[in-house]
Design a protein that fits this description.
Length: 117
């Protein structure tokens, strides 16, 4: 039961940070999203984001900051195996399934639903 509470709290804190960035600092949603991705990448590069995921589960792995962590993790894993070129290829290898799924589901939704414009 405790893991669910921590997932809710940590995920909520990440969302509150994003909302504060938009409301107080008047950042656009795109700037807010980019900042959260970069923050996740920095925390992942420092080895801190995986500890947060172990502690909070989906509360840390579902928000957009986890995407930045995945990018860094993929780049570092491929860099160890193939060298410097792995930094570029690893980013796409580890995140390709999620991006592909988003594109496919968005396409299917566009076929099913019609915009009101």
């Amino acid at each position: 039961m405790g893991i669910f509470i921590w997932a809710f709290i940590i995920g909520g804190v990440i969302c509150v940070i994003g909302q504060i960035m938009m409301d107080v600092f008047k950042l656009t949603p795109a700037h807010t999203m980019s900042t959260l991705v970069v923050a996740g990448a920095i925390l992942g590069g420092l080895g801190l984001y995986d500890s947060l995921v172990k502690f909070a589960g989906a509360g840390a792995s579902v928000p957009i900051s986890s995407f930045g962590n995945s990018l860094v993790k993929g780049a570092l894993m491929e860099a160890e195996q193939t060298g410097i070129i792995g930094v570029l290829t690893g980013i796409f290898e580890i995140t390709s399934s999620g991006i592909s799924a988003a594109i496919i589901f968005a396409f299917i939704a566009s076929l099913i639903f019609k915009p009101k414009g």
